[in-house]
Amino acid sequence: MARIKILFEEFKWIIILVLCLEVSGRNRYKKYIEPNFVQKANNITVHRGQTAVLECTVENLGPKTVVWRKKSDSYVLSIGDRMYADIEEMSVDVSRSPKYDRIQTDLIIKHAQPSHSGLYECQISSKKGYNFIVQLNVLDTQPAYEPALTINGSVYVSRFSKISLTCNATGAVRAPEDIDWFHNGQKIRQNDPHWRHRTLIYKYQEVPGRSLVSNLSVERARDEDAGTYICRSSDKDTKSITVHVLNAGKDISEREVGNGISSKHDHQTLENNCSSQCRLLNVLLLVTSVLLVNR
Ligand SMILES: *[C@@H]1O[C@H](CO)[C@@H](O)[C@H](O)[C@H]1NC(C)=O
Ligand SMILES: *[C@@H]1O[C@H](CO)[C@@H](O)[C@H](O)[C@H]1NC(C)=O
Ligand SMILES: *[C@@H]1O[C@H](CO)[C@@H](O)[C@H](O)[C@H]1NC(C)=O
Ligand SMILES: *[C@@H]1O[C@H](CO)[C@@H](O)[C@H](O)[C@H]1NC(C)=O
Ligand SMILES: *[C@@H]1O[C@H](CO)[C@@H](O)[C@H](O)[C@H]1NC(C)=O
Predict the structure, then answer these.
(1) Closest C-alpha residue for ligand 4 atom 5
(2) Which among 171, 216, 196, 229 is positioned nearest to 53, based on CA atoms?
(3) Is the Cβ–Cβ distance between 52 and 141 less than 8 Å?
(4) How many whole angstroms from 172 Cα to the centroid of ligand 3?
């Protein structure tokens, strides 16, 4: 009884806040659309020691919040983007797509143990019985395949040539569902003005169904395309690669006398074979693009 009282004291403000949001939300969204769950994998199997990712995506959440709890325990694991249970191996990762009013709230369990197995409930606050249930199975065995993530591709590209990167994400039981690319911390979206009309992201599963491969290609590399490219799988594994865009001629000689990092990289694309004619063409292209942009 005393514990419940303490718990209530702790959560009092949250409860009051949620109620306030609820009331103000009611008034503001008089006839707002009901939230709904986007169907995601609801039966996840991992091996002992691996990372389990339980996904929950809600559309039209409005002023409500997403709550994760384990069905067999009565306490709340997380509310919104905050963890409430003091369980070190668990965390939540929230990503938003404002365009579709979608919120993805993933419950991540690192070093999963068989005791983590069970039914997990993703709930929309204040909507009783409105939930998405995910079954987690943690096998007490070693994986037959080690999960892995590799990134390969062009580390050095000259301006106006093509950047090609390949990310290969292998899961222990099955291929991850998706792969996202980031450039200097920003997610790469093909319809973003910076990338539009010259960027292609192509994804396919390898035959055994354990690997998801994503090829990113960016045509007509610009100076701003240089930087860190990160590939992130839906299993929350990430790898990065640094791409240098070379100003034909100058940077190459710098690189050759430079600190020799180049030898550490797996793959290089050097297309420094630009005659004076082609340089002139490059300058023309640059001038044209500047004129087009400033129009
Ligand atoms: C979930 O997956 C496990 C392992 O693949 C399987 O044994 C179980 O029957 C599945 N449960 C449901 C409800 O599909
Ligand atoms: C790809 O990169 C990984 C390291 O990320 C490296 O071990 C592997 O050899 C590379 N593969 C190719 C084909 O370059
Ligand atoms: C991806 O990785 C898996 C596992 O290491 C390997 O079997 C597969 O050949 C790789 N695919 C590509 C395209 O690199
Ligand atoms: C993706 O990249 C890999 C490695 O560079 C290559 O083997 C594969 O053919 C590419 N696939 C497509 C569809 O471009
Ligand atoms: C560079 O261009 C010359 C003539 O245009 C050609 O003969 C040569 O093979 C090219 N070298 C490379 C590495 O493409």
Answers:
(1) 166
(2) 171
(3) no
(4) 13
- Predicted confidence at residue 19, as pLDDT, reads 59
Average pLDDT over residues 168-178: 87
Q: Which of 152, 155, 164, 166 is the best mutation target for the ligand 4 pocket, counting ligand atoms within 8 Å of the beta carbon and taking the most?
A: 166
∠ CA 277-282-285, rounded to 5°: 125
Would the CATH topology of 36-139 be identical to that of 148-250?
yes
Query: Which pLDDT band, with edges at 50, 70 and 90, does 43 fall under?
Result: very high
User: What residues does ligand 1 touch, defined as CB less than 6 Å away?
Assistant: 43, 45, 135, 137
Residue-level pLDDT at 272: 45
State mean pLDDT over 146-173. 91
Q: Note whether 95 and 156 are within 8 A (CB).
A: no
Q: Which CATH class is domain 36-139?
A: mainly beta
Ligand index nearest the alpha carbon of residue 158: 5
Residue 117's pLDDT is 96
**Tokens 């069970």 belong to which residue?**
118
Homologous superfamily (CATH) for 148-250: Immunoglobulins (2.60.40.10)
Which structure tokens are listed for 231? 């590939």
Domains of the chain by residue range: 36-139, 148-250
- Read off the pTM: 0.55
154 lines ligand 4 (CB under 6 A): no
Ligand in closest contact with the CA of 213: 3
Protein residue with its CA nearest to atom 8 in ligand 4: 215
Q: What is the spatial distance between Cα 34 and Cα 62, in angstroms, rounded to a whole number?
A: 8
**Does pLDDT of 189 surpass 70?**
yes
